[in-house]
Design a protein that fits this description.
With 193 residues, the chain is an alpha/beta fold. The protein has one domain. It is built from 7 helices and 4 strands; from the N terminus they run βααβαββαααα. The radius of gyration is 17 Å and the shape is globular.
Length: 193
């Protein structure tokens, strides 16, 4: 089982050039907040099933790879999710996941009408260079937001671990206690002054 958050997710995925190389060498994986332009992540999103979106991709009917945003997403039907299970945690408003250098001169697909998240302000529109500068500012504060938003994945990570590895024999009370500890860190991280 492997886990990576942000640059750790990028580093973990760099070892595996294809989904087949990943699934043949791990028992499961969680990649949270994968930065834009990571080859494996981009390839999997690019191969998504017709009709699924960049924000909520479905690959091969969700057979081995699934994308999640919140802990509640793991309450959905997980049947048919074959081992080794691969979970991507991504928020539609996480600039680390979506912003790449070409945003300075090219409108990204995630800002197109059919791909746009309702979490983005309707006033947020693409303007060359300006959107890039705005996105740099967003990157700087991506962790100063509550959990389940921006670059903070909170208890979605715990839910991912349980969905992939099982509960390890923990009781519901123990899992709730872990969630309570995670909730203590939900307050936005203040920006140093």
């Amino acid at each position: 089982m492997i886990y990576g958050l942000s640059l750790g997710s990028e580093a973990m995925q760099s070892v595996f050039p294809t989904l087949e190389s990943l699934t043949s060498r791990v028992d499961g994986a969680i990649f949270a907040g994968t930065p834009a332009n990571v080859p494996l992540s981009e390839a999997l999103r690019g191969a998504r099933d017709p009709g699924s979106t960049l924000l909520e991709p479905v690959l091969d009917g969700g057979r081995q790879v699934r994308w999640f945003a919140t802990a509640a997403d793991f309450d959905n039907d997980l049947s048919g999710w074959a081992a080794p299970r691969i979970a991507y945690l991504q928020h539609a408003n996480d600039p680390v996941v979506w912003v790449s250098p070409n945003i300075f001169y090219q409108q990204p697909p995630w800002l197109e009408d059919d791909e746009r998240s309702p979490l983005l302000s309707p006033d947020f529109r693409y303007i060359p260079l300006v959107t890039g500068l705005q996105s740099l500012a967003d990157l700087a504060v991506a962790e100063t937001v509550p959990d389940d938003s921006g670059h903070r994945y909170g208890d979605a990570t715990l839910s991912a671990w349980i969905a992939i590895t099982g509960d390890g024999g923990l009781t519901s009370a123990a899992i709730d206690a872990i969630r309570d500890v995670i909730a203590q860190y939900e307050a936005p991280i203040p920006i140093s002054q």
